[in-house]
Amino acid sequence: MAKYLVIVESPSKVKTIKKILGSNYTVTASNGHVRDMPKSQLGFDVENDYEPRYITIRGKGEKLAELRKEVKKADKVYLATDPDREGEAISWHLSQALKLDDKKMCRITFNEVTKNAVKASLKNPRKIDMDLVDAQQARRILDRMIGYRLSPVLWEKIKRGLSAGRVQSVVLRMICDREEQINAFIPKEYWTLDVNLQEEGEKKGFTAKYYGEKDGKKEIESKEELDQIIDDIKDADYQVKEVKKGERLRNAPMPFTTSTLQQEASKSLNFATQKTMRLAQQLYEGVDIKGRGTIGLITYLRTDSTRVSAEADELARDFIKEQYGEKYVAKAIKQKKKEGKIQDAHEAIRPTDITLTPTIVKEQLPRDVFRLYQLIWKRFVASRMESARYETTSVRIQAQSHLFHVTDSMLAFDGFMSVYVEADEEKAKSNRFVKNLTVQSKLSFQSHEGKQHFTQPPAHYTEAALVKAMEEQGIGRPSTYAPTITTIIARRYVAKENKNLYVTELGEIVNEIMKTAFPAIVDSSFTANMESLLDMVEEGKVAWKTVVRNFYPDLDEAVNNAEKSLEKIELHDEVTEEICDVCGRNMVIKYGPHGKFLACPGFPDCRNTKPYFEKIGVSCPECGKEIVLKKTKKGRKYYGCENNPECEFMSWAKPSIEKCPECGKYMIEKGSKLMCSDNQCGYVINIKKETM
Fold first, then answer.
1. Catalytic: 300?
2. Catalytic residue among 50, 210, 300, 502, which?
3. Are 407 and 392 contacting, i.e. CB atoms less than 8 angstroms apart?
4. Tens digit of pLDDT for each residue in 462-479?
5. Which of 48, 175, 521, 597 has the fewest CB atoms within 10 Å of its CB?
6. CB atoms within 10 A of CB 110
7. What is the pTM of this model?
């Protein structure tokens, strides 16, 4: 009887697939990549048309020896690594390292680790897709080019061990640019005015919001304006001028892509992107379910398509009809607009078996794995359901020349919301008093409330918001979102506090050097174009070496120019007046994982270090001592008094030596402007340019 060998990527898939295939099949795992370019070298030969040089990854020799033994015993070898660029490349590397005969070897892929999908893949074997492999080789070589040519520049100028990456450098710049916008943001004052009214014959009243005047919407920009409006309406009659009844639909969401899963898991489950991917991997590779054995619970987790197979769609509709009723089944399914960058090879992320409800599997899954499965299951079921329908009432009320507005929204049909509600969705509050209003209603004024507000700066990126921005700008791909964010946090370029991402001192310096020396590398449109070129390689439209040939000479020139232009920049070992209290030498400024610190230049004989607090030349407005630049435990910058803990002064914005001419309080730097630290005062002037 013929013997078959199936090689997968991950050991946790082995058990699942063994159960499906039976005794004629040996199933084993490569444990990821077996070959790569050497870490100690660039890894490709520029003189020989960028030909890559691959070696066995350290520690994988035994694994390859074990696989060679299994190959000898087998009549046929199925390479069943993951169904994407990376998986295709691993299959190709295996075929090369194991010297597999074309007649003996074939490639199979499945989008879900289930009996039907795995058996169907065996009936449709194919050759290795070299376009996919070449796209991965091109990506790997471009990443190598940038990482291995740029990182030494950072080592020389800041400290060893820093890295610059093709995608991570752009993402770091996005975070730095957002930080600059926040720092330069000047709040603008505005006011809101609510009036509490009561309809004749009703015991309870309702609140209407100020809308504007007869000729249109108007913002109340000052206390004076507010007082004038209040003065106008204090003895006014309130008349219902218009009542509009309508209907509003809330469309069902589309099933998850990698990006939307990461975003929603962050918002509703508070999962970091890396954690979401780790748990999704477990759900994809296989979980023990009572009565079903080991099965994959979700489809492949790296996808940017919302497409669903006709079979899965039909089963979902039948399930919804049976569980919720005919009226809940969607008549038409909304599709994501096709964009050039969407890879449609995979379906959306969905449950492999819709009848395995969260209730059935709950007791058999670890808590967080269950919570992620429940999110994916509910989202997919909701995507096949009808829209939710609201009955709306909109009322316009006039007092003198001023208009007030009040709305009511009542859920008439819950549709998909009977299963799934997004984390940031506001629940509509019904107000029966508004619903009953007509133009004949008689209203009486009860009270008013004016509130001062200030416009808010752009929000700091969270991991979810960053993934969304990366996807929108075409930076990276589903497989790179989580690793990129993990890398910039691990490198301490970015600090994460309460979900928000803040650039650290080290991140600012790295970004500044990258912007100065390698502007193209940190340009988001350049990176997005590079991704598009790699997609074209994958589609067989462009040869991978063409992409590399066109890129390398420009990079080489940029590195050479950068080395010359950065010669003037000296960022390390600046001597200070601080004396080492161990050996008496003047201490120097060094860069560590958390930014600057003071170290004795006598290292290794003297290993004394101290925290470095950079003075900014401004006196503390509370006690008169020096203001210094400090960092939170996670690395976020702020300004505090050197006399801490006696003086608790702190400011996220940089204080200025200037005092506010209006109220005398200290001013803070806001980009190219100075602003009073007291929002209520709000005085703003341009920063005086120093004359040379």
1. yes
2. 300
3. yes
4. 999 999 999 999 998 888
5. 48
6. 21
7. 0.88
